[in-house]
């Protein structure tokens, strides 16, 4: 780890941006169920709850679209700093909200900040990371999201016992703290060396690379070789004028854009935010009673999310992206299938007719075939499957596949896709939970089956490859399963040519 210590530190600080989003997910899931919140906002119905929840993600969508231009213009680092300041403002608006409109506006402002961060942070981490640990460093973003969720859950459980509006206002105030930490720490972090090279600041880029790769040793051969490779790639891209958004729709970058969009789309079609936003009501339907029971069950859900993200952080650079995504989709899909079956079997009724004193009495009750703990366990199994796969890898894959000059623009589109589907899922989930019941989880199962097929057929493996080697990986057939031998041969030839050059 010594060689990558600086990279871990920088990526860890940047990943606090993920904590902001995770915290917002955690508090809204529980605040919506708080009695003082419901009383203050006059018991919002399912449609109002969907709007309150989803306007954060609408802001994220807008923010993510604008983040690509900002990252290229003012740098990844400054975009993260600006987003942190916006998040502080949005948090204050929510905390002092006196009506639903004010609350929704505050969530939209926070969404803008999270949209900027969700694009800028993985891009920044990706460009600072060595190929051997790139997946691990970008996974820190997702792990930070899970920590934000679990911290918010347990804070809300604690404040739910406050007998006033402070029970829901205090958690909203507290989300300012991680934003302030990011606001103070990021100015001390370096710029992305690839962004510096893109701006013609070659000497600064060399100094940053030496700092994060070789402890400041400017003559380290591996560091010097990486510097030359990145600079050569940027010079080639400049010659072919890869600059505008329209280039994303042209061969060969179009294929990468499609895969990035599909990755982010499928992450949301796992239904993760249906579970995270509305789990307290789902747990209540599953049979967990009491005022704090569903919230405690959701708190445990958050802990599961944190713990099962750790294997992905440790092993995603060994497992690879393809296998991790396919196994995750299988785990999520099977969990949903069993959950849907258990809800379906328990949805029937039993009619009992008795005659008492010549009067017929009819009693209708629910038929319990599958014990409630089965459904609850499947929710935890689903979260564990998601956390160890789609949670981190959906941020890793889009961030690493685009060429340098188009990375910010490409990831702004793919990240906006994530937030668009997040918005749709968050908006309609309250209504679908009530209207479709088990059918909603069966639908998510179908999405996961489709995801496995698409990944197997079309996704090339990117683990252990430099960002500049993506040109080789995405040069051939769209049928990834047919193209593996060609990729291996070309990359091996490239490696041998570099070794000959170094020996000379």
What labels describe this entry?
single chain, 504 residues, Growth Hormone, Chain: A, two-stranded antiparallel sheet, 2 strands, 76% helix, MFS_Sugar_Transporters, carbohydrate:proton symporter activity
Note down, in words, how this protein is organized.
This protein has 504 residues and is mainly α. It has one domain (2-189, 243-351, 365-473): Up-down Bundle (Growth Hormone, Chain: A), CATH 1.20.1250.20. The chain has 22 helices and 2 strands. The relative contact order is 0.14. Mean pLDDT is 84; it is low at 356-365.
Write the layout of secondary structure elements.
Elements: H1 5-14, H2 16-31, H3 35-40, H4 46-74, H5 76-95, H6 100-128, H7 134-159, H8 166-174, H9 176-185, H10 193-198, H11 202-214, H12 221-239, H13 253-269, H14 272-285, H15 293-319, H16 321-345, E1 349-356, E2 359-366, H17 372-387, H18 390-401, H19 407-435, H20 438-458, H21 470-473, H22 480-503
Antiparallel strand pairs: 1-2
Helix pairs in contact: 1-6, 1-7, 2-6, 2-7, 2-9, 2-14, 4-5, 4-6, 4-19, 5-6, 5-8, 5-9, 6-7, 6-18, 6-19, 7-8, 7-15, 7-18, 11-12, 13-18, 13-19, 14-15, 14-19, 15-16, 15-17, 16-17, 16-18, 16-20, 18-19
